Amino acid sequence: MHILNNREKEFTEEFKTYLSVEKNFSVHTMTAYCSDIVSFLLWLNGEDCTKIDFNKLREYLYFIQRFDYKKTTIARKIASIRTFYKFLFRERYIENNPAISLSAPKRPKSLPKFLTPEEIEQILNNIKIDTPAGFRNRVILELLWATGMRVSELSNLNFGDLNLEENEIRVFGKGAKERIVLISDRAKNYLIQYINTARKLIAPEYNTKEPEENSPIFINCTGYRLQNQTIRSAINDVVSKIELPKKVTPHVFRHSFATKLIENGADLRVVQELLGHAGISNTQIYTHISMKHMQDVYNSAHPHS
């Protein structure tokens, strides 16, 4: 059985540093990519990885497809190899990159999960608002449903981002890209009530100063900015109590918001702007959801279906 030689070990260590420093990958992704490359080098069985060609890589793809991997796993393993050879080429360990035209199988597109307005209301109405933190959580979910914000965007909101007179909120999305989202009167009224009452009671011993423009809107019991995980936990607590037969995450609120807009005839470009999608293709998936919804309604209602 082949074990990695010293040169292969050096490659994997340098590759790990490259993923961490240059690519800024998460620890989870970095670990997966390095594991993929170790498996690949072991499969080469001592053959010099800097001397192989495209056909050898294709041979490896045929090899791993014999196993019962998911398509997403196969795609990641191919991405790992492409990134590894890009690294070798960049560091001039190889003169030509054999993986440059290596292609991954297309991932199956799954439709985003979404909730009906009735299910959203069921969740909102089951949040206990008799404590400051409970009321805060109700406001958070009202905002997610009303605006389609990402949970990270919501937790990063500051007082300077609010323009409640115009029912507008400034949001900084992916890549710090700025956009304006609109807020319903109902969500706005909840937010104003939270700012005027509940927020001051969440961390009274820490929260002694009047908020400034860069002060976080949503805080925890020690007065610091509320983290994403707390918002997820709040949703999980409510959903588990009402036994809703769907997995509900903050992102499901975003999908539900977009789906409802499309079903009510909103222009796709408007929805794209509100969601902060870079391209229209990311938004178009919601038209598929609407079509499926229309087909379901048709099939259940039409006498000849």
Compact summary:
With about 300 residues, the protein is mainly alpha-helical. About 55% of the residues lie in helices and about 5% in strands.
Write the CATH fold name of the largest domain: hpI Integrase, Chain A
Helix content: 55-70%
Report the major sheet: 3 strands, antiparallel
Strand-residue proportion: under 5%
Write the CATH architecture name of the largest domain: Orthogonal Bundle
With helices defined by DSSP (H or I, 4 residues minimum), what is the helix count? 12
Structural class: mainly alpha
Order of helices and strands: HHHHHHHEEEHHHHH
CATH superfamily of the largest domain: Intergrase catalytic core
Mean pLDDT: 87
The parts where pLDDT drops under 50 for at least 5 residues are none
**Rg result:** 25 Å
CATH level 1 class label of the largest domain: Mainly Alpha
Q: Give the N-terminus to C-terminus distance in angstroms.
A: 61 Å
Count the beta strands. Answer: 3
